[in-house]
Recover the amino acids of this structure.
């Protein structure tokens, strides 16, 4: 791989590709992120993958709220009325590769899909 996963001096979880890029404020946030992705993938009616800086930057997240459990820094999750959006900026930032910017939009979620039990 072009980078390694690390825990920074302040406890943030991130990647090092010759430059440190914190993804989540803590390891717990990083654990929550793939757990939320697995839950959303099972619950969503549709999942859309968006790649590249132009397409991801066009996402309108004004009606969404951040998901605090993921402790997002470079990588973050947003909760809307019937959808969850994961925006992964860390790899693009660490590698200075805007084409690596990616978002996943999980649509058609009910209350269970949005928040779990």
């Amino acid at each position: 791989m072009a980078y390694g996963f690390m825990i920074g001096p302040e406890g943030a979880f991130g990647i090092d590709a010759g430059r440190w890029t914190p993804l989540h404020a803590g390891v717990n946030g990083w654990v929550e992120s793939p757990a939320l992705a697995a839950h959303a993938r099972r619950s969503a009616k549709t999942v859309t993958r968006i790649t590249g800086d132009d397409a991801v930057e066009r996402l309108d997240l004004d009606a969404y709220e951040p998901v605090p459990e993921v402790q997002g820094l470079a990588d973050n999750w947003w909760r809307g009325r019937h959808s969850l959006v994961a925006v992964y900026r860390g790899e693009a930032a660490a590698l200075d590769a805007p084409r690596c910017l990616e978002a996943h939009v999980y649509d058609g979620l009910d209350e269970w899909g949005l928040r779990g039990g």
Remarks:
- The longest strand covers residues 46-51.
- Residues 27-115 form one domain.
- The longest helix spans residues 27-43.
